[in-house]
Amino acid sequence: MYKVRNNIFLGIFDLLKTGIFMNEKLDAIDRAILGILQKDAKTVAKSIAEQLGLTKTPVYERIKRLEQEGFIKNYVAILNKDKIAKSITVFSFVSLEAQKGAMMDDFFEQVKKYPEVVECFVVGGEFDFLLKVVVENLDAYYDFAKFKIASLPSIGGVKSAFVLNEVKNSTDFPLL
């Protein structure tokens, strides 16, 4: 356990100094491999090895280790949503009546069931959650907000922001 000073929480700099946010299992080669794979998950070990000036076998073994240790969670196809169907993206700021563990857990379980919710974050500040919602149109969002989110028993309020234009949408995780 980490030592707690007079404050209940350690400062972020104290946490950084303890190294809990640093991942010492990743070296420069691992980070390079991850960078290549997150740009194109179909890149084969031979191609990665050529890019890094290595041989195929150690690169393949590193990729398998990164998968086994959970650094690589999954391989996915990123779809061009504009070619599939017209949709709108809405950010829904949700607050609960009270921040009780059971209410939060119930909210989590309900939100996981809604296919319209593509991302859900617990946030600090004025709201408790930030949902990224994708629906067909404004009417669909109205139905979603009214009949799914606002009807949950613990909801204190919902505010919405509609995306007018997407300037940047990246799936790349910064490998700091």
UniProtKB/TrEMBL annotation:
Keywords: DNA-binding, Transcription, Transcription regulation. The keyword Transcription regulation applies. Pfam families: AsnC_trans_reg (PF01037), HTH_24 (PF13412). Residues 26-87 form the HTH asnC-type domain. GO terms for molecular function: DNA binding. Gene3D superfamilies: 3.30.70.920, Winged helix-like DNA-binding domain superfamily/Winged helix DNA-binding domain. This is DNA-binding transcriptional regulator, Lrp family. It comes from Maribacter sedimenticola.
